[in-house]
Specification:
331 residues; two-stranded antiparallel ribbon; 15 strands; eight-stranded parallel beta barrel; alpha/beta
């Protein structure tokens, strides 16, 4: 760790890539090569999301990657809790951890894509119910991932004398990551998670709130985690994902183009609940415009202001971000 980071008590940077194995990435056949490329670039983690649409199955895919990669950590980002019983998930997770020689990061969330639940005939419960269900799952997973005997009686799950096996390679258990943007999810993550993915909040119809992409709102979410976690806060690693990376020698012009696109309703999954300035765009943790050096400086500033240190990028942005890793590696 550099002296500046050490003196400020900040965590070292880590970098996460990801893949879905969808048609845009060349399909499932090129999925393994994508992870191997991420490892060559120097990313620390390769994550697979969990959707029922056009992508590989995350747990089977990580099983394959456990044998096809050597160093890169393997993650789910994030599993939808409603799709799997925690007792079965724990078995799959510890198996991947053993096969990968201790490289699993298990990311799990409440599930948010109602359309996919509906298509699969799985009940999409109210937000409160999904969060309570996830709370129980995380409690059960914590014990089973340690190889302990679990007895649990709750609203959704009843576990009677089940011992987690195989014992994971990592001790005391593989790290658990939870993502969230709303107050209740962030509080739940602060209670259970080793890694928290600080996401933007969503509207009732599933659109991302534009206001939540600002630096100020991100600092507020981190403060919420700090208050909820109490003494645990220093043990928690904070992650965020940069949605868009544009390598350019004119940051301001690119930010103005982004604002113009938003005014015209693009991208359609953004809820325009606020009017942003060019400075808002350029300071947002979730957007990265500029030269490699400027983006590296921006990421340092995000860490300074928020303590977030674990940087994720989407599959289509992996090549663009790769030259930035050597500028920040080890800091």
């Amino acid at each position: 760790m550099t002296s500046a980071a050490a003196d400020s008590g900040l965590r070292k940077f880590r970098f996460g890539a990801g893949g879905e194995g969808n048609r845009d990435e060349g399909g499932a056949r090129k999925f393994v090569k994508l992870a191997q490329t991420a490892e060559e670039y120097g990313f620390d983690t390769f994550a697979v999301p969990d959707h029922l649409g056009n992508q590989v199955g995350p747990l089977a895919a990580l099983g394959a990657l456990s044998q096809a990669t050597d160093r890169i950590r393997l993650a789910t980002s994030v599993l939808a809790n409603g799709y799997r019983h925690p007792a079965l998930l724990a078995k799959e997770a510890t198996t991947i951890d053993v096969l990968s020689k201790g490289r699993l990061e298990l990311g799990i969330g409440a599930g948010w894509m109602k359309e996919e639940f509906d298509k699969a005939g799985i009940e999409f419960e109210s937000p409160g119910v999904r969060i309570r269900r996830l709370d129980e799952s995380l409690t059960i997973l914590d014990g089973l991932l340690r190889g302990e005997e679990v007895n649990f009686s709750g609203e959704f799950y009843n576990i009677k004398g089940l011992v987690g096996s195989p014992r994971p390679r990592q001790g005391p258990r593989p790290p658990i990551a939870v993502g969230g943007g709303g107050p209740k999810m962030l509080a739940l993550a602060a209670k259970h998670a080793d890694i928290i993915s600080v996401a933007t909040g969503t509207t009732a119809d599933g659109k991302l709130r534009l206001s939540d992409m600002t630096m100020e709102k991100t600092v507020e979410r981190v403060d919420r985690i700090r208050q909820a976690a109490g003494d645990r806060f220093d043990e928690i690693e904070l992650n965020w994902t940069i949605a868009t990376i544009v390598i350019t020698d004119d940051r301001e012009a690119t930010a103005e183009m982004a604002l113009a696109a938003l005014d015209q309703g693009y991208p359609p999954n953004i809820a325009m609940d606020v009017k942003l300035s060019v400075d808002d765009i350029l300071q947002s943790p979730y957007l990265a415009f500029g030269s490699f050096e400027q983006i590296a400086d921006q990421i340092r500033e995000v860490r300074r202001r928020t303590t977030m240190s674990y940087v994720g990028v989407f599959p289509t942005q992996m090549d663009a971000f790769a030259p930035i890793i050597p500028l920040l590696k080890g800091e």
